[in-house]
Design brief:
Order of helices and strands: HHH
Structural class: mainly alpha
Protein name: YtpI-like protein
Helix content: over 70%
InterPro entries: YtpI
Organism: Paenibacillus auburnensis
Number of strands: 0
Strand content: under 5%
Pfam family, one: YtpI
Distance between the termini: 51 Å
Keywords: Membrane, Transmembrane, Transmembrane helix
Number of helices: 3
Shape: elongated
Length: 102
């Protein structure tokens, strides 16, 4: 069961990393500033999810030394903050785009 969780977390890590790279590239190529901001906020959400997944992976892979627990907790907090700020930014840019189209 633990092995299945490890593989699932690794697959999620690769998916989040690939998605963040794709949205990073597409945000740099977007001409519209609102669309660029919306894509960067999605990238921020994916990067936060990647950090949370990396933290969970290290919890399952390594033994719990003090330094390991501190790094895992730090990754978890930074990842949660990235997800939260990305969701806030996404809401702002989505509302701005709807207001501009109306």
């Amino acid at each position: 069961m633990i092995l299945l969780i490890k593989y699932l977390l690794f697959i999620l890590l690769v998916v989040f990393m690939t998605g963040a790279a794709v949205y990073s590239l597409s945000s740099r190529r977007a001409a519209d500033p609102l669309e660029r901001g919306r894509r960067r906020s999605i990238m921020n959400i994916l990067l936060g999810a990647m950090l949370v997944t990396l933290s969970l992976m290290s919890m399952f892979l390594f033994r719990g030394s003090t330094i390991s627990v501190i790094v895992e907790a730090l990754f978890l907090v930074i990842g949660a903050f990235n997800i939260f700020s990305g969701l806030r930014s996404y809401g702002y840019y989505s509302r701005s785009q709807r207001g501009r189209k109306a």
